[in-house]
Target: site-specific DNA-methyltransferase (adenine-specific)
Amino acid sequence: MNPQQARTYIANLFSHAFNRVKFLEFTRNVLNNNFDEHKAALWNTVYIKDAFKSHVARYERLGTYTAPDGDQLDVLIVHLTHDAKLERTRTALRNFIADHLKQRDEKDAALVAFVSPTEAQWRLSYVKMEYSAVETVAGTVGIKTQLTPARRSSYLVGANESCHTAQSRFIALLQETRLAPTLAQIEDAFSVEAVTKEFFKQYAALCSELEQALTQLLAQAQLLRDEFERQQINALDFVKKLLGQIVFLYFLQKKGWLGVAQDDNWGAGPADFLRRLAQRDDYTNFFNDILEPLFYDTLATDRGHAAWCAQFNCRIPFLNGGLFEPLGDYHWQTVDILLPNRLFTNTEQAANGDVGTGILDVFDRYNFTITESAPLEKDVAIDPEMLGKVFENLIEDNRRKGLGSFYTPREIVHYMCQESLINYLDTRLTELELNVPRDDLETLVRLGDQLAHYETVKTQYAGREMPLAIQQQARQIDQQLADITVCDPAVGSGAFPVGMMSEIVRARSALTPYFNDATERGAYQFKRHAIQSCLYGVDIDPGAVDIAKLRLWLSLVVDEDNVQHIKPLPNLSYKIVCGNSLLGVEKTLFNEQAFRELEQLKPLYFNAADKQQKDQYKLQIDAIIHTLTNGKAEFDFEIYFSEVFHQKSGFDVVIGNPPYGAKFSPELRAWLLKIYKHQSNPPESYMLFVEKGYELMRHQGVIIYIVPNTWLPSLTFQKFRRFLVSHFQWLGLLVIKTKVFAAVVDTNVFVFKKSTPQEGIGFPVFFFEPVGIRFAHNLTWANVPKDGNAINVIFPPTHQNLFQTIKKRGVVLKSVADVYNGVKPFEKGKGKPPQTAQIMREKPFVVEGSKPSGANWMPLLRGSLIQRYVTLWNNDYWIKYGEWLAAPRDSSIFEAPVKIFVRQTSDSIISTLCNSGVVGRDNLHIILPKNSTDLLFVLGILNSKFTDFIYFFINPEKGEALAQVKKTHVEELLLPKRSFDAPDEQEPIIKLVNQILVAKSENPKADTSALEREIDQLVYALYELTPDEIVIVEGAGK
Model:
């Protein structure tokens, strides 16, 4: 079928209540009539396990599909009970399908329609099992299914639900009529990332168009321009807040809280309330006449229990919290902002054929869900986490480079939040002398919600019980979860506070079955307590702070179940704060009375709903802060978050994705280097945040950051590494071996504890790969250099120990040779005479092609013109050598009769030999011998597999983007000590290198691998390596 037919076909299925006949036909079309309907079966309630009977009434299998690669998928229809809700039974239903797949031939996945008898919507899900191969005691490999999680991705479809996303994702499958799809192709139709990327692009375009319109309006309207200048409002901030407000209302109308009839409960409102407002005919300007009164009057005013709004003729809740307060307190009643109506809705045709390009038109095409995705449960819809990614997209390029902020992928956020919680609980319970094994805490945090489901229904499954130690210490563990304090000093869009809140709630909820009295133990109560007592964040960008608050508010909206009374949202001004985390102020810390008043007022402000009372509390709080900071306007942790430092002397957990590569003015850089004692010059911003994190932590607190990996290998950061190995106990590292940021940067996650390092205590290293997170190895503290030298965490202890052994048998290259950088031809202001802008444009001193006439022209090599044992120069690359070059180096380097060139841009050592009179560019290093060192011997060692092993230890950048071989790396390479004590042992290698050079000079593509293997074996012999050690050397870095 063609694309339009496919769209219509999908709309007929997904825009209506569930229809079994249509669903079966859809399945046949997607699977190309290639699934076995003889496997159809029906299971009624008698065959439903007790654990699921409260959720599942009956279910049926329409058939089983076998993909071309042999993977199998069941097609199921699950009919829910009257009491089960699609949004409230996520974990139980996912577990139900997992149980079905395990029990019935261990299928790989299921395509499932979940159908409720009481709802017009139904859910189409793809559930994928994650069976893991394990080695049994007997040494055979089996499949581990016990407690193996299933992952579910879903569309919510049916009456009043948009099917735009499903149409765009399933068209390819429906159009392919020849080939049977793989399960990966079916799973791709449920890709959350593909959908969100499309939405981000459209959201950013809306933001840009809205900003242009507002900027034009400001140029035309003097009164509006004066108001914005008076209140210090810029157009982009206004636009970002406006879009955030509209998105928030899309989530609220999904909840059914907008447009409720006079006698109806909350939740009964129409899902298209904003569209209905736009369709009214009683306004002139949609923003000025409809949205502003809705935002700043209706939603911001407490109208009592009835919450009746005469203007809109319906019930609309009072929200509080500050989201629906005018930016900068601009006078919205008296100042008109006449944004064109077409910006909100129109009938213009988009490039892809969609009708309507306004904000409401675009938003109406997407499904919104108020539940944030979890590792095992994702909706193919726009969820609150989307706001974080939108924030990343909306930062202007120059600001992003200046702030160094990038969005953290959700898988990494989940990992970091769980790790921090496990380590916090392990530390606190040990301090309290409570015997709860760490493995049990990991079970609680990672699997607690699944275990709690089975515990609640009192169904016994082998291996599914909560560990006994968790049950016995449930109250103590719960108290520690309630008491935790967490700070993200670069909070961005709020991913980590929201993630930590979710993990705290999941863990506390999992403990509820072990409490006799479960009142006040709902998700809403847990979330509100966590937001008020546990979570803190700071960011320099006010837009980021707004988004972070928005996500916390939405998280409360998700679990507000009281259909009679909606509680006002809390005020978060002193929980998520706009400020510079790195600065602080000289302050007065000895005014106990002021701090006591401050800490009494903040909870009152948090819960205040009356605007007058709220404003009064804020005035009092700000006055006290003004006194304590001696009138300075800068943010300071110990004042704004004083209760944490008075109660615990610091945070239990500091977590985040600190900015990297931020630019500092010379004045600020000098000030930072004065305050932070363990930094290089110039300072790297993420390292400043690590040192700040140390200051913010209590003793035994946990810090977990995702950062660039430069802190491990970079030669510049010795001082910083000495700080890390002397001030922290290392608890774990996650090496991220796949790109998780759009920026070209390789990252890792570290987990450290603020305590004196203990010898003999190791730490695990994990690898984050496309397939997920896997354990790599444990490292001992002895494997970590204490002198600031580069740290290699890629290799396990066997490799680490071998490297240390080899070092004792070798000498560093710089002891027998000198290493130089190549020539830098151009840099403005350098050279004699200083190079001008014209020189920089024309670059007259380097020429490709025939040799120019005139003096001083010499052959020039660059990195790409050398390979191992090969020079690819072909009389076609020249440099006019002399003092006019930006950095000509000493001419004797290039006049030397023989030298080794080493390529700089590479993740391994690539070197060749060259004679006199050839110049190397600055992407090459040059090696000249000291005394009688034979460069042929050195070349053989440098190009050997042995040096690959050594270099990967010195600089573990194998396979990384833009890996660089630095001059200092080359100087630290090893040569066998014994060969210098007995020079005749060098001769066999020198002979083989000569043979290779001759062969390569005659034919650069000559196969010399056999000769190179001989050199490898000779090098191993010089280092006296055993066969097992040779295996380690040759396998390293693969």
User: Anything to note?
Assistant: The chain has four domains: 3-190, 195-368, 403-474+486-580+651-752, 811-1035.
